[in-house]
Amino acid sequence: MNRPYWLLLVGLVVLFSGFPMAAYADTDPDDAFDEATSIEVGYDNAILDGTLSSDEDIDIYRFTTEANRTYVIETFNIQGTPNMRATGLYLFDSNREELRSDERGNNGTGDANARIVQTFTRAGSYYIRVSSARFENWSGSYSLRVLPKYDEPGAGWDAENDFEPNNTRQIANEITPSLSGAVTRRLFNHNSFVTNYADVDYYRFEAEAGYNYVIETFNIQGQPDGNATALRLYNSSGEQIQDDKRGANGTGDANARIVFPVKTTGEYFVSVMRDDLYAWAGTYSLRILPQYDHPDAEWDAENNFEPNDTFSTANLLEVGSENAVNRRLFDHSGFVTNGSDYDYYRFEAKAGQTYIVQTFNVQENTSGDGTGIYLYNPEGSIIADDERGRNGEGSIDAEIVQPLTVDGTYFILVKDERNANWTGAYSLRVCENNCAQSNPTPSGSVFLPLIIR
Predict the structure, then answer these.
(1) What is the pLDDT of residue 443?
(2) Whole-number pLDDT of residue 366
(3) Is the pTM of this model over 0.85?
(4) What is the pLDDT of residue 448?
(5) Residue ranges, the chain, pLDDT below 50
(6) What is the pLDDT of residue 364?
(7) Residue environment code for 349-372, b if the CB has 16+ CB neighbours within 10 A, otherwise e
């Protein structure tokens, strides 16, 4: 072989041996750490036009953190279906060492695909890599955001978009424990997004030791035997401490309910999500109600003194015929709930006295059904009942006569009688030793209709 031809052949071999093995040669300017695209922290600074042009493409971003702060990093708004795989997400420190990953996009909920939550002990520049999920061949458009923790500078939510994003504890919405602090929100339909799970809404609140708090979703339109929301409660460390996963505890207009006795004052979290076994999406209301003797306890005087469906939210009933009240068990058939309307009352009793509890002037109906009543001791254990409303005579429907041996706060439950589905107006009184009076109808009282807000 002539020397020039031999040299040419060697040169071609060397030239082609230097080509990369991958079939795709990426030309994006952000495929290397030194060429990373800058992304600012905050909801308003999300990058909405990210694109992986092929399954070999990668995009690298750079952002700046403050020391001892927590950030939520996520890809989102990827069109597709929840059973798909799309992006993988990787976090690197300033030395380009990997810190954490969600390489298969397993952590997202709602409209988010891949998610990383990280607390940074040091300030500085960090890097994010977006690529196709591991073992997948995905390419397409994505959005990327870096969100600060709820109590850190730059935290924000979209008031015009249901106060999203709030899909993790670290970006939870604030809710105030009180009747007036209730919020109305929505679990949105996530079926058009590549994500691991349905929409989840997180809230945070302050609770005081020594009190019970009633957490409930309510005012969900539908049938009582339907399915809707679930509730989960977490301590400040994110440990789940209670739940109502099937929305099984609600009564009246409430769907899911947790009654939470607080042992330690501090911050707690609650998540609202779909019923564990049903793919529900829709509008709900959420309230956190403090115990009746808490300074912020209140009831709606224009709405039949609701909500009073638990011991912890019981209405005060003064002893004596002259203190009788007129109330109503409302029709719950338009709400997703586990049971009919319950009305709880509390009264102060003295040891050695006999107490008489009566419902009377009960609204008539063609079935002849009416009220059932139950009496509970201060510990919440039932001590007497007239659950079928059989003890009363004349204008009296249900009646309990019970001697009490211990001072304290006792409770009365009024509901529809057992095995019935009664709704309507009733009067209630509790008397010491006897209920004798010339007129059994409480003076100055009117029947208050239930107003659904």
Answers:
(1) 40
(2) 61
(3) yes
(4) 44
(5) 1-27, 438-453
(6) 79
(7) beeeeebbbbbbbbbeeeeebbbb
Q: How many residues does the chain have?
A: 453
Task: Tell me the C-alpha distance between 411 and 405, whole Å.
Answer: 15
pLDDT for residue 31 = 80
Q: Which residues contact 6 (CB under 8 A, 6 or more apart)?
A: none
Taking only the tens place, the pLDDT of each residue in 317-328 is 999 999 999 999
Per-residue pLDDT at 365: 74
What pLDDT is stored for residue 78 in this prediction?
Answer: 98
